[in-house]
Amino acid sequence: MTKNPKSKRLLVNLFILLFLAGGTFVAIQFAKGYRPDLQNHSLSGTGLLNITSYPKSARVIINSKLTTVTDDKLYLLPGSYQLKIEKDGFHPWTKTLPVKTELVTSADARLFPIITAISPLTFYQVRNTAANLDGTKIAYVLKDSPQEVSNGLYIYSITGNLLGSSNVQIADNSGRDYSAALLIWSPDSSQILAIFTDKVPATKKLPASEKISTAYLLSTKGLNPKTLSDVSLRLPLIINEWQDQFAKINLPTLNLFPKYMVDLLENKAINVYFSPDKEKVFYTPLVNLSLPDNEIGSLLPNINSTPESRDLLKNQTYLFDLKEGTNYLLPFVSTPSAVTKTLITAVSATPSASLASLKQLKAQIDSRLTSNISWYANSKQLILTNPEGINMVDYDGGNITNITFVHPLENFVTSSPDGSKLIILTNINQRPDTYNLISFDLK
Questions:
Q1: Cis bond before residue 55 (omega within 30° of 0)
Q2: Whose CA, among 1, 107, 112, 383, lies 20 to 30 Å from 389?
C-alpha cells in the first residue's frame, strides 16, 4: 500500500517551513550577538564593540591582551573592558568601556604623534595674533623684517591657497604699530577692527585705565590705503551691526539645545563656546544648580560611559553633548583672564563704544581670551594649554595627551579646519624674544 502523496508533500512543506523559521530565528539571534555556548548547551548573549581610530591599523589591547587592529568589530560577553589603542610613533588611547547584551559600544580614538614635524609659517618676528570665527584665517603683525615696508598687519589663510600666497599684507606699520592694537574680526571675516588706546594715569579716586584713542576698520581682502579714516565715532554703529550678526549665528545653534540648557547658557553662564559641528558646548555657570535627569540619554540604547556631572558648581567649566544629553566636568580648565564672554543673542539697546564692549566682541570668537581651552576642529577633542605645554584632551575630559612642551605666546594656538595641524605662536630655535607662527603636524 503506497503512502498518500498529498500527506507526503504536506510533511515536506512543513519541514521546509520549520527549517526556514528555525534558520531565521538563529540568524536573528546571531545578528543580536548571541553565540553558541558549548559548555552549557545554550546561546549566550554578547554585545558588539565597534573600534575605530585615526590613523587606522592601530593595535587593540583588551584587558592587557592584544586582540585585533583597527578598524574592527568584536562580539564580547557583557562586562567592563579596559581598552587600549596604540600605534608606533603615537600616544596611546585608553578607556574603560561597558559592553551590554544586544547593544553596540563604540570606541573612536584619535591618536596624536609623539614627535610632531614642525614647519615655520612666518619669519623674523610676529605679535598680536587673532584667528577668525571659522578658524580658516589668522591675523598677525609682522615686525623686524629686513624691508621696513614688509612690516605690518597680515592675514594668513590656512585653507584655499592653491592659486596664491597664504600670507596677504593688509596694512603696513608706517605711522601706526598694529602690534599694539586690539584686533577684532568681524563675524563674516570680511573686516578687522584695529583699536588703539591711550593709558590714563591713576588718580586719588580712580585707578589707572585705558581709553580709545583711534580706531580703524580694515578690509581683509587686500592692502588697505595708507590714509585710513578714524572710525571712533562710528564704533557704536559697528558694534550694533556685529552684535546683530553674532545673534543670527548664535540663536539657531542655541535653540537646538534643551530648554533648560538654553536658559543656562543664555542667562546663567559665561564663556559659552559651541563646537565646530554645533553638537557640543563648553561653558562656566555663574551659580550652583542641578541639571534635570538626562532624558535624551535615557531614550538611547547606549551612551558614553564616562560619568556625568549634573550638579554644577559656579565658576567650574563643563561640557554638554547635545546628541547624548550628557554633561561632563572639565577640571583642568582655568580662567585667569579678567575678560569673560557673555553669549550674544540680541542687539544691545544702547551699544557703547567702550573697551569692555569691544573686548566682548573679540571674546565671541576667541576662547583663548577667556580660558586655557579651545575647540579642536573635529569637535571630539579640546586644545588645552597648561604648565606642561599644549595638550589634546577628549571632550569628556579623558586622555590628556601632550603635543609639545613649548608654550604659546599670548596663549595663541589653533587647529587647521581639517585637524591635520596645530598652529602655535611660539619660539623654537630662535632668540628668546623672537616668536613666529609654527605649524605642528598631527597626521
A1: yes
A2: 107
CB atoms within 10 A of CB 295: 9
pLDDT tens for each residue of 135-181: 999 999 999 888 888 899 999 999 876 555 688 999 998 888 999 99
Task: Name residue 150's amino acid.
Answer: S
pLDDT at 348: 85
Q: Cell 578690509 sits at which residue?
A: 219
By CB atoms closer than 10 A (0-12, 13-18, 19+), residue 211 is exposed
**Structure-block grid coordinates of residue 195:** 583699536
Cell of 414: 589653533
C-alpha cell at 121: 609659517
Total count of residues recorded for the chain = 443
Q: Quick check: 125 and 435 in contact, CB under 8 A?
A: yes
d(CA 125, CA 145): 8
Least confident of 100-104, 172-176, 265-269: 172-176
Average pLDDT of the chain? 90
Strands 47-54 and 104-110: parallel
CA distance 86 to 234: 56
Phi-psi region of 152 (alpha: psi -120 to 50; beta: other; left: phi over 0): left
State the Cα–Cα distance between residues 162 and 106, nearest whole angstrom: 37
Burial class (CB in 10 A: 0-12, 13-18, 19+), 126: buried
Query: In the numeric block, which cell numbers belong to residue 378?
Result: 573635529
φ and ψ at residue 52, rounded to 5 degrees: -130, 160
Q: How many CB atoms are located within 10 Å of the residue 286 CB?
A: 15
User: What whole-number distance in Å separates Cα of residue 127 and Cα of residue 141?
Assistant: 5
pTM: 0.88
390: enclosing H helix or E strand: strand 389-394
* Whole-number Å distance between alpha carbons of 151 and 195: 18
* Alpha-carbon torsion, ordered 210, 216, 219, 223, to 10 deg: -110
Give which of 318, 334, 314 is closest to 326, Cα–Cα: 318
Q: Which domains does the chain have, with CATH numbers?
A: 42-110 (2.60.40.10), 117-230 (no CATH), 234-405 (no CATH)
